């Protein structure tokens, strides 16, 4: 596969997400898929890095845009996944970081999403969250998010590698990062 780079560096589409917990619940956003090419989906708040943006700044910006909540801190890596999708010549790298929020007293929030994709944002009990992230279909991002949510909080990060151009029932590799 071509990496699209002429300078010898491999290019990857970078996407970040934030993992915010409140008790036994996790913060999710319900969104339309980009370009409307698929069913609405439940995901961790997050999105693409802007040119020159650092990871922590991107996590903070994306969580605040998609939920309307103030991010107090961006912490350690929660999990990551890298995959090739059919027809794409560069991998997608998704990194989810633990985030601390300011005071949260409501259950549902008002996003300030410039892409106008967010339907709602709310804390969802983890058991329900697993079902919701898998409800739009089984993809590397949804499978990795569900697998992460099944872990005990504080279990340490994990990383999954996928290639959807090859027939596989799961990731090519799972790398515990801790």
Automatic annotation (TrEMBL):
Residues 9-147 form the Nudix hydrolase domain. Keywords: Hydrolase. Its cofactor is Mg(2+). GO terms for molecular function: hydrolase activity. It holds the Pfam family NUDIX. Belongs to the Nudix hydrolase family. This is Nudix hydrolase domain-containing protein.
């Amino acid at each position: 596969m071509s990496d699209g780079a002429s300078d010898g560096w491999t290019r990857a589409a970078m996407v970040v997400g934030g993992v915010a917990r409140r008790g036994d619940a996790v913060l999710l956003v319900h969104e339309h898929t980009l370009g409307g090419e698929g069913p609405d989906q439940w995901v961790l708040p997050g999105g693409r890095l802007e040119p020159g943006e650092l990871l922590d700044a991107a996590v903070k910006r994306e969580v605040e845009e998609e939920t309307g909540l103030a991010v107090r801190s961006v912490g350690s890596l929660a999990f990551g996944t890298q995959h090739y999708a059919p027809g794409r010549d560069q991998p997608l790298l998704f990194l989810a970081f633990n985030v601390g929020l300011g005071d949260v007293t409501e259950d549902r929030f008002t996003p300030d999403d410039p892409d106008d994709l967010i339907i709602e944002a709310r804390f969802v009990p983890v058991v329900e969250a697993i079902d919701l992230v898998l409800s739009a279909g089984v993809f590397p991002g949804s499978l990795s998010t569900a697998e992460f949510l099944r872990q005990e909080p504080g279990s340490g990060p994990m990383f999954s590698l996928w290639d959807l151009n090859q027939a596989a029932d799961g990731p090519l590799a799972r790398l515990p990062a801790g």
